[in-house]
Amino acid sequence: MSARRDDRRRPLLIRVLLQPAVAAGLSLTEWDLLLRQARRSNLAGRLAEQMETGGWLDTLPPPVQPHLRSALLLSRRQVQMLRREVELLRQTLAELPGPLILLKGAAYALGGHAPAPGRLFSDIDLLIPPEQLPRCETTLLVHGWDFDDGLDAYDQRYYREWMHELPPLHHKRRGTSLDVHHTLLPPTARTPLDSRALFDAPRPLPGLAGVFVLPPEDMLLHSAAHLFHEGELPNGLRDLFDLDALLREFGAIEGFWPRLASRARRIGLTRPLWLALRYTRQLLDTPYPDTLLDELEPPPGPMALRLLDACYRRLLRPGHDSCRLPGHAMAEVALYVRSHWLRMPAGLLARHLARKAWSRMTTAPEVPKVETP
Predict the structure, then answer these.
(1) Which of 69-83, 150-164, 330-344 has the lowest mean pLDDT?
(2) Which residues pair with 179 in a beta bridge?
(3) CA separation for the pair 294, 199 (Å, rounded)
(4) d(C-alpha 78, C-alpha 73), whole Å
(5) 60, 103, 124, 219: least buried by Cβ within 10 Å?
């Protein structure tokens, strides 16, 4: 199949993000569809950044420009607020002896990495050594942080015993959301993970003493693990573009590719990396050495691979009705089941799902409040 036919079959948003110059010739009807796809995929900021960087923003149809300028303002304002929030976190947790390592969107933005321009995110992800969790939690609670509402005793136990992070936190005054991780995957996950290796060589952020980001190889591996161990993919396409951007950025570093393969084997994330390489190449034409896949563990079996392809090719698309393929709902269910299967052993998974089902059946719905005159 020719590249041209592949381009025609791609959703409009993907075609424009891969070849931004295409946007200059779009009609208003096509722009309406493009903006809807971008918003539903949380990629409007990235689209706006590309239009401005390429010099097209001022030449676009007048009804389109305010939408893109608004997305630019929102994404840049978020980075300003992020810097302030991370500084406050640094001060709050200054007495913790280990490094505070930013993950995902916060790391991209403050580390100046390729996925950052225009990227929006809803919370700050922080990685700390597991032995510091109790002290970190107490310190945060004392300084105005609290756990999200709606978590019962079982949910608290679920996070603390079986997950790779504390329950989600929010600041009672500033409204900021925070996820505190002690590893990248749940301790009960079927993928054996060398969590201690994540603290081998974090890179300091200039101007933020005690705050770090992961080195390039680990940053990319975390992004791959996050996308390909999750069962719900509301930001799946955005995360795939993150991987594409990181692979293109870090691939220019001398010696990166052999270090990436070696690091994946050391930490235990060869399978998520294999899937990340497969789908970034298939869906976004991401460049990397053709021999790289051979250096990782053997691929899934033919039947498993066909099922994975069927699911990810449906879900790694813009989250808009114009992009839904037949079988979308079944793919969502399949990846949801897969994520739980990867997250827990069978016995624990059965107990957990039964407990959640019982909770849903026995929880009375909230009665809407009626105001009296």
Answers:
(1) 150-164
(2) 125
(3) 27
(4) 8
(5) 60
- Which spans in 232-372 are helix H? 236-250, 256-267, 270-284, 302-315, 328-343, 346-362
Task: Give the Cα separation of 99 and 203 in Å (integer).
Answer: 10
* Crossing angle of the two packed helices 302-315 and 328-343, in degrees rounded to 10: 120
Q: How far apart, in whole angstroms, are the C-alpha atoms of residue 244 and residue 267?
A: 21
CA–CA separation, 14 and 44 (whole Å): 12
Q: Which of 155, 145, 105 is nearest to 125 (CA)?
A: 105
Residue 175: which residues within 8 A CB-CB, separation 6 or more?
Answer: none
Q: Please enumerate, as own/partner, the contacts of 354-358 that have beta carbons within 8 Å and a separation of 24 or more.
A: 355/154
pTM of the prediction? Answer: 0.91
Phi-psi region of 42 (alpha: psi -120 to 50; beta: other; left: phi over 0): left
For the chain, give the number of residues: 373
- Residues 5-49 have pLDDT tens digits of 457 689 999 999 999 999 989 999 999 999 999 999 999 999 999
Gap between the Cα atoms of 72 and 80, Å rounded: 13
Neighbours of 98 (CB within 10 A): 18
Q: How far apart are CA 108 and CA 123, in angstroms?
A: 13
Whose CA is closest to 300, among 310, 290, 308, 292? 308
